[in-house]
Structure of Efflux RND transporter periplasmic adaptor subunit:
Amino acid sequence: MNLYKNNLALSLIFAVLMGTSLTACNGKKEKPAEKEVTEVHEDEAEHSDEIELTEQQIKAVGIEIGTIQEKNLTAVVKASGQLAVPPQNEAKVNLLSGGIIRKINVLEGQKVKKGQALAVVENQEMIKLQQDYLSAKNGFSFVDAEYKRQQQLKAADAGTGRSFQLAEANYHTELSKIKALERQLQQQGISPKNVSAGNITAQTTITAPISGTIGTIQVTTGAFVQPGTSLMDIVDNSKIHADLLVYEKDLFKVQIGQKVSFRLTNQDNQQIEGHLIGINKSFEDDTKGVIVHAVITKPLPNLIPGMYVTGLISVGTEKSPAVPIDAVVKAEGKEYIFIVEEEAKTDEHEKVAPTKKTAQPEKDSPKAEEQHEHGTHFKKIEVVTGVSELGYISISPLEKLPKNTRLVVKGAFYLQSKSTAPTAHSH
């Protein structure tokens, strides 16, 4: 009897231990599955450049699929550079003599015409210059009268040759002195006629040497400026052009008169047109490149010297990969296309699939059928674009694409907006 009770107790203890072991094993199996599901969702969240659309969505937004074509487009030489103006269209307003700035008549960014008053400067030395002019002019009347008298005496053979020569020398000396003083007054912005009429002033007006737009004003009212000091800059952007650097390997293709399509690098790649007008005959320092000069056909009002530009110089025609212009989208200063990515089932996907089944409904339910439907996958690829003609634009993908790659030729903008929208994954 005791033996029977002992066996029964051992059997109960064994059963309890087995149940505990099975419960522990089941708990360990579930946790890795949850971890795998989480890892799958995290992996999907990383691929923001890949988008999946159903056939119904594709039709609804009007997406069209095509291929990259070989088009006979204009061949171009790509060159970078900056906008600039010719030396004769840029001026610095300087003072020939020092003085105190009494008035500034213009503002930075204001357009002015040649000869327009820019500032008023006061200098007491100008009074002495005007006095010297008046003294020379008043003294000239006696020299002029003596010269005319000696001329009359010489004509009548009544005077001496030496007296006539002395009077003639004094006349030309005083006349040249007056002309020099008049020129000095004009350079200072003072009218000799006003001085002759007795209007002496210590203030001079500084005028614009060229027409254009006022740049940086470097002085303030009441400041004393030394001779040769630059008060402000004036730039005439009507003759703005681009200085582009063409490297030695492309130099033989470039000729004067060729058309150039400019892209403003920091202005959302805004395009302007022009043509080449000059090619330098020497290499730039530390480069194997030559500067070429191109004028802009219709300058935009916001063009400023120093802006960075990229020039596409048309040098002929050649076949190049091209897509419709609508196939290219821009984002954050880069350009992209959306290719159709063929879905290939790999062993790795098949290994992950059983893990996903644990979170999916039963196979026969409608929800399960919806989850098993696969749409079209699109992948965003960065490209570098070239010349555009007749609705097509040449492209150079930054990664190698398979032959006959299909891509979105219409509706790429919708895919771009969808790729930038925030996405959330439910666990």
Observations:
- The first helix runs from residue 2 to 46.
- The first strand starts at residue 50 and ends at 53.
- The radius of gyration is 43 Å.
